[in-house]
Amino acid sequence: MSVLTLKGPRWVTVRQHRRALWALPVAVAASLAVVLALRWWAGNPARLLWNVPDGPLRVGMEYAGMALLFLPLLLGAFVAGPMVARELESGTYRLALTQSTTPRAWLASKITVAAAAAVACSIALAGVYRIGWAPLDGTYRFSWADRGPYEALGTVLVAYCLLGVAVGALVGQLVRRTLAAMAVTGLVTGLLMAALGALRWSFLPVRTVTGPTAGGPPHIGDALMMDLGLTTASGGRLPEWACFEQTHNLSGCPDDLNVTGWYVDYHPASHYWPTQAIETAVVLVLAALALWAAFAVLRTRHR
Question: pTM (2 decimals)?
Answer without folding.
Answer: 0.91
